[in-house]
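sorry to bug you again but im stuck and you know this stuff better than me. what follows is a protein written twice so to speak, once as letters and once as structure tokens for the fold. mainly i need to know what kind of three dimensional shape the backbone takes. anything you notice is useful, everything is just below:
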Amino acid sequence: MSDAAHGTITLGEATAPARVRDYFDLLKPRVMSLVVFTGLVGVLIAPAHIHPFEAMLAVLAIALGSGAAGCINMWYERDLDALMARTRNRPLPAGRVEPDDALGLGVLLSIFSVALMALATNFVAAALLAAAILFYVFVYTVWLKRRTPQNIVIGGAAGAFPPMIGWAAATGDVAPVGIALFLLIFLWTPPHFWALALYRSDDYRRAGVPMLPVVAGPRETKRQMLIYTLVLAPVALSPTLLGGVGWLYGAVASVLSLVFIAHAVAVWRTADDDSAHPAARRMFRFSLLYLALLFAALPFDKALLG
């Protein structure tokens, strides 16, 4: 099956008819689960009442919007995915799903998710969801990914939208706490992905993706990872400082941020020629736990302390 969109690689012939699981995999379910979780937290901690059924539809719209953006991303990047060990078995490079089917699914889900959000909640939340999808597809996937080592910095904004969308779904507006949650994910994204890129740099180099470790080298990548974790720490505290939640969340955020910084220091101190990058692997795993625990602490704090 020829890759007509980019013309850079010939993909393998389809080995079997597409299954439901293949189409589900196009939606990037692991990414979607984090998006759904952070979007739900935005709904739960917003200072406004929303009917549970409306809240459920809002979270469903966020999930579908995330899946739609992931689907279009996989369609556009199928040539790159075929070159990388961790992605070459995805449904498109493996030939299990036709590219036109993937693109059609992504476009339809994009339209449906925004319409559902507008009908279920309000136009502010729908506009934010549309902006997140468009930003991920056109700014990150099409424009930045193949052109600049800052791709994940700027493109990370797309993944930072969900809690702000959830907040807007409940309140109809965007408040400082909602923006703080956006900034938290936005600043978390670079050290999270660069930790992965450090020990997957050969994959990115082979695919020609200008991730920071490939372009600037391990030492500069480690330096920027440490800087981002230091800047992230006060931002992680900002929901408490802004009065959105209480001291319990603030304590959790302080401890987790210190541990995250400690991981970044450990990465900084490792040898640059260590291709295994064990400290970076540990930091990547902890970064997932860091964000999950922070967002779990937000509604827990509000439920416990009001």
